[in-house]
Amino acid sequence: MASTDLDTLIDMGFDKPRAELAVKRTNGLQDALEWLEKNQDVSFEEITAAEADSKETDPNTQADALKPGEEAKSLVCNDCGRKFRSQAQAEFHASKSGHVDFAESTEEIAPLTEEEKKAKLEELRRKLAEKRAEGSEQDRLDKKKNEEIRRKSTKETADIKEELKKKEQLKEAAAKKREKQEEIAAKERIKQKIAADKEERRLKTEKEKAEREGRAPPVAPKAAATPPASRPIASKPAAAYTETRLRLQTPSGSVQKSFPIETSLFEVAAAVTQESGVEVTSFTQNYPKKVFDTIDFGATLKELGLVPSASLIVK
Q1: Closest CA to 261 of 309, 223, 297
Q2: Which of 17, 143, 230, 251 shows a CA-CA span of 20 to 30 A to 66?
Q3: Which of 170, 293, 314, 305 is nearest to 244 (CA)?
Q4: pLDDT class for 233, splitting at 50, 70, 90?
């Protein structure tokens, strides 16, 4: 019979250890259901601990139900008036309530009718479902809260990364714009230098022709029309620059360095020698074509027209 009661309790959704203890501590399915209802908010560990303490305090305590043939039909608690069908129920009531005044009673506690038993089962199922629903709802709320925290943290991290990315993009765009402007200025200087050289060759040819024909040579245009090679035309006056950027092609590779415009070419050569170990004897500029040897080393970068930037081959 106990096995059938245990299966019924397990089918109702009760944990097997708690259901086994209920069957062991009571007499029949009705008592087991009442015991489970009374202890639904008490953990299994607390119940077993209370049972162990009870056995240690009173070794002669009997946890089984009343045996057939005993005169007493039930037990009653004189402290609260509650009646119990078995000694086990009375002992558990005493351990939970602290009541100690019990007496035997000849009154027999009538068993539950089928309707009452069914109603009791439904009530237990309802309470069990509500308890599980409360746990599920709390789990859902905790999960939602954790998800909100995770999303907030992810968004803040993404915002920081986006801000850093924008700053890097602005910095890179500014550098590219500056390089583009310097490149345009350098091309303009080269273009004007080529035009000046072309004009110089034309004048030379006309002068030679005039001399052969015995007539006066043509008058050269004013110097202001063609700026000196040593003073490059840039997007702004050379005096506005405080530094120049040199791209130095050495035997070991290309090096880009910035120098104050008043730096002498000798100091540039010394810096290259210190960094690469190459003994510098001259610098060659391709556009416009020009060679700076040791005679030019005493001049500044500004005086040599190497402002705001220039490319030199180290030899």
Answers
A1: 309
A2: 17
A3: 305
A4: very low
DSSP H or E segment with residue 253: strand 253-260
DSSP state letters, 203-243: HHHHHHHHHHHTSPPPPPPPGGGS--TTS---SS-GGG-SE
Give the residues across from 243 on adjacent strands: 260
Distances (CA, A) of 106 to 27, 73, 82, 149: 18, 5, 14, 64
Distance from C-alpha of 257 to C-alpha of 141, rounded to nearest angstrom? 62
Maximum Cα–Cα distance across the chain: 163
Count of CB atoms situated within 10 Å of the CB of 226: 16
Residue whose structure tokens are 């190497």: 306
Please name every residue paired with 51 in a beta bridge, in sequence order, or none if there are none: none
Residue whose tokens read 């009530």: 123
Encode pLDDT of 14-48 as tens digits. 888 888 888 888 877 878 888 888 887 777 777 77
